[in-house]
Fold:
Amino acid sequence: MTPRVEDLIAEVRRVQAMPYTWPTPPEAESARKANAGSCASKHALLAEELEAIGLHSLPLFVVGRLVPLNLRTDPRFSDGANLWEVHECLTVTTPWSGPLRVDVTWDPTLVQLGGLPGTLSWDGRSDMLLAVGEGGPCWSVSRDGLRQAKEALRSRIYTPGQREVRDRALAKLVGYFDELRRG
Structure:
């Protein structure tokens, strides 16, 4: 099967439409069963779907801010406002544009109503916006040992106790995201 840009766009939109949720297992099957997922599970699912249409991808770790820019001054998220996050998305290799950065983390509701960074009208020929903002260091990694590599990277960026603060802040964010979806 020769991959087409239209097929890439369709798969990206389908997975991006799944609500973001956390905590979830980081596997594709988790997102598939729940029809929702975290950055890890949604991108694992997208990678499988893209492979089925002939497009290869690699996981991409990006270090950026945990709390999105537009929410950093909100007192509900102040404890996590200055924390880093090891974010997971994909580098997708295409025959028409070479490698593309693809990030389907935030679902359309969070992009439209929550003002979170995301690319909804994507052309399949350019890099997408990152859920953790632009400009952070990044690494493409093999799927073999992916979880261990992510945890090792986290051990470099978090000081003792910060991981727990990160988890509490992320839980608060997910609660806020659920409020947005309920209207």
Q: What stands out?
A: Helices lie at 5-16, 28-34, 39-52, 108-112, 146-157, 162-182. The beta strands are 56-65, 84-94, 98-102, 138-140.
